[in-house]
Amino acid sequence: MKGEFIMIQEKLLITLILCLLFSSASSLQAAEPFDLRHYGNFKKMVHMKKVDGVVDLDTALAGPHAYAVGAIKGGNGEITVIDSEVWLAYGKDGLGTTQRRIPEGEQAALLVTAQVRNWKKIVVPKKMTEPQLHDFILEQAERYGLNTKKPFPFLIEGPLQDVRWHVISGPNPEFSGHFKGHGGETPFIQLKEHIERTSGIIIGFYSANVKGVFTHPGESWHLHILIRDKERAGHVDEVVVGKGAVLKLPEI
């Protein structure tokens, strides 16, 4: 009789533990529905010159409603993905040329991805510099209920000004190993352009405290631009967002 009572207690305990685990997993999934993942490490790319492929693009981007930014293996170009539409900008092809299909076996040296089915739209009320935009995104994310202590993706669509962007084109032979940020010595050859005014899509990832992994060292933001009608896509160095643009945050 005593043995049966102990067995019942053990079963109840196991059931309770399983319920708690399921509840925790469900809560986590509900809080972060966009399945953010990252591959590679920017610091290692810079300091250890690790530019080999770390993940097949076909594999990393296989899910529906995929969004991603990153660098092609070898530092040979930029990866921009918006709602599973792929834009690969190879430096060897120059600015303004993108491939829409993933070459067989192509890999990323660095990649951050998310899957977002629906977005919450927020109108940008005034022209904003990039630092102002960062503050606005975090303010709106917190107000909406996103956990800003963890990474998340976002989009900005509409008028853009003073866009400074680039596409990488292989390792920089003169790079000393000490990254100096935008405008300084860089680990990759960069093809640069300044656009005074345009309309486009910014896809970005906020890294929270995970700096230097899928963002530049010391930075919390990784932004790419897509100018669809001109077939241009690449990494954003600086941007001013115009009044009336739309910020999109993943629905929770």
- CATH classification, class level of the largest domain: Alpha Beta
* Secondary-structure element pattern, one letter each: HEHEHEEEEEHEEEEE
Q: Kindly report the oligomeric state of this protein.
A: single chain
The amount of beta strand, in percent, is 35-45%
Could you say what the CATH topology of the largest domain is called?
Answer: 60s Ribosomal Protein L30, Chain: A
Q: Can you give the mean pLDDT?
A: 86
Low-confidence stretches: 11-31
Span of the ends, CA to CA = 50 Å
Rounded to an integer in angstroms, the radius of gyration calculated over CA atoms is 21 Å
Number of domains: 2
Please provide a written account of the structure:
With 252 residues, this protein is an alpha+beta fold. The chain folds into two domains: 37-114, Hypothetical protein, similar to alpha- acetolactate decarboxylase, domain 2 (60s Ribosomal Protein L30, Chain: A), CATH 3.30.1330.80; 118-250, 60s Ribosomal Protein L30, Chain: A (2-Layer Sandwich). It has four helices and twelve strands. The strands form two sheets. Strands 1, 2, 3, 4, 5 and 6 form a six-stranded antiparallel β-sheet that branches. Strands 7, 8, 9, 10, 11 and 12 form a six-stranded antiparallel β-sheet that branches. Mean pLDDT is 86; it is low at 11-31.
